[in-house]
Amino acid sequence: QVQLAESGGGLVQAGGSLRLSCAASGRIFSRYVMGWFRQAPGKEREFVGAGSVSWNGYNTYYTDSVKGRFTTSRDNAKNTVYLQMNSLKPEDTAVYYCAASTVSRVLSDYVAPDFGTWGQGTQVTVSS
Description:
Elements: E1 3-7, E2 10-13, E3 18-25, E4 33-39, E5 46-54, E6 57-62, E7 70-75, E8 80-85, E9 94-101, E10 117-118, E11 122-127
């Protein structure tokens, strides 16, 4: 069972950048699909994106609202995934979670119940 711990959240002005890290424990980290979710106050948890290792590299998916601004990457040697967030907007303010899944789907089809392990979350606040 993998365990996850996020870090890197904080307060940033609109247009700024942050990089979130998600450190994982576990020997088979590379086999997991790693997803990122966020939840703003009073809103449902939103699927931000995900990445998976495949024979031809690292496949990624992003929801439309962050496409072109957010990038997820993975360092299997460090058992860590990252979410680089650029051109941040006030509407990106939320608690961000990383999550791990052993379910096999097309990346765009993942939903929260597919992810069996979650980090504790890290707050990202973007001021206008």
